[in-house]
Amino acid sequence: MSEPTGATRRRGPFKVGDQVQLTDPKGRHYTFTLEAGKNYHTHKGAFPHDELIGAPEGTVVRTTGNVPYLALRPLLPDYVLSMPRGAAVIYPKDAGQILAMADIFAGARVVEAGVGSGALSTYLLRAVGDTGTLASYERRQDFADIARGNVERYFGGPHPAWKLTVGDLQDNLVETDVDRVILDMLAPWECLDVAAKALVPGGLVCCYVATTTQMSRTVEALREHGAYTEPQAWETMVRTWHLEGLAVRPDHRMIGHTGFLLTARRMADGVEPPLRQRRPAKGAYGEDFDNDKPTQLSLAERAAARAAAKAATPVIEQD
Ligand SMILES: C[S@@+](CC[C@H](N)C(=O)[O-])C[C@H]1O[C@@H](n2cnc3c(N)ncnc32)[C@H](O)[C@@H]1O
């Protein structure tokens, strides 16, 4: 049985063309590609690539200045954080959430926009595998070029499941019978209609947004659209730990914020999502709520919510 694309580059002794991640005595990382006959230069001397070619991962090489460097292949989380960037990449903690919570499976038909630097595309391609499809849309040619370079360097060439289109998703999406649509862009609400047309019943849309205002607008647009179930939203925080003897505690610094994730499922055609039973919280659709922005609540329901909020507001008698 042939190996899935890229798998042979992830195991066995180091080969020409492999990515190597060096760790110096201070824990800093450096990444390079192995080439026969070349030298790798550091501030503390150099060593020949040939010393690593044929050696197992986890080897320690010493520079001419006798400084030890640990050599391993970068993991995908290492690779995406060190590769060239056009746009900001999705952090590994969020990519992991997307793979798990958007239920990306081997053989799935997935659409993604935008592509940015191609970090999420690489995770998605590994998850759908050679038998799935990933159709990625990116509006900027320069970012698409960077993403293609990053993805192909990771897999050692083109991935058979990947199609990259330059253009806005909402104007170019041609796929149908799609299982999952993943949106990482400023205005995902502009793409919800084309996503609904592409998705199979039971399919899932997943949006990654950086701010609460984007999250709110996306949620209300999903509700208003009518083809989606009630959306769910969450964020994740990952706290790394300092581990030294009895000094075992959370690290002082952490990545405090990356973004929010939202998911909703595609209803069957012609089926309306059941109205929410819960009453909206007082003030949720108050005077400040922009009625031009979409919401699943009818105008009458919004008026009732406002009246209820007003009735519950204590009246302060003035002399
Ligand atoms: C934050 S980046 C995506 C990062 C990417 N997920 C990664 O992990 O590397 C957002 C990208 O969306 C693109 N974009 C924004 N709106 C778009 C649209 N409607 N269709 C296609 N691409 C879009 C932008 O040009 C930008 O490159």
UniProtKB/TrEMBL annotation:
Q: List positions binding S-adenosyl-L-methionine.
A: 117-120, 138, 168, 184
Q: Which reaction(s) does its UniProt entry say it catalyses?
A: adenosine(58) in tRNA + S-adenosyl-L-methionine = N(1)-methyladenosine(58) in tRNA + S-adenosyl-L-homocysteine + H(+)
Q: Any one Gene Ontology biological process term?
A: tRNA methylation
PROSITE patterns reported for this sequence: SAM_TRM61
EC numbers:
2.1.1.220
Q: Which Gene3D superfamilies match?
A: 3.10.330.20, Vaccinia Virus protein VP39 (3.40.50.150)
Give GO cellular component annotations, separated by semicolons.
tRNA (m1A) methyltransferase complex
Q: Does the keyword tRNA processing apply?
A: yes
GO MF term set = tRNA (adenine(58)-N1)-methyltransferase activity
**Region of interest (Disordered), residue spans:** 272-293
First-tier enzyme category under EC: transferase
Q: Where is the tRNA (adenine(58)-N(1))-methyltransferase catalytic subunit TRM61 C-terminal domain?
A: 80-242
Q: Which InterPro entries match?
A: SAM-dependent_MTases_sf, TRM61_C, tRNA_MeTrfase_Gcd14
Key words of the record: Methyltransferase, S-adenosyl-L-methionine, Transferase, tRNA processing
The record's listing under SUPFAM superfamilies reads: S-adenosyl-L-methionine-dependent methyltransferases (SSF53335)
Q: How does it assemble?
A: Homotetramer composed of a dimer of dimers.
Role this protein plays: Catalyzes the S-adenosyl-L-methionine-dependent formation of N(1)-methyladenine at position 58 (m1A58) in tRNA.
* UniProt family annotation: Belongs to the class I-like SAM-binding methyltransferase superfamily. TRM61 family.
Protein name as annotated: tRNA (adenine(58)-N(1))-methyltransferase TrmI
Q: Which organism is it from?
A: Kitasatospora viridis
